[in-house]
Amino acid sequence: MMSETELPHWLQYVLIAVQLLGVAVFIYLIWPHVKAESWKEKFIDNKQAFSIIIVLLMIFGFLYGMGAFFDTFFPVERLDVAPAESTP
User: What is the CA radius of gyration of the chain?
Assistant: First the structure.
């Protein structure tokens, strides 16, 4: 069974180019709608919306910090290979 690490390099580059082209087309199509909105009045001047944004950013930071903590202190152990012998 072929995985993404076994694909030819030229095919990987073509897939990356297609993804970048898709992002560029999406931005091209959506940019007039984004530019037409009054973002400051909707989210900065509106105190309730601004406080919700702050709370969501705090939750994101907390989850990111917890993920970094557990990745650092409790790393994932491979079960399909024998554990490496450590010499004291």
Answer: 23
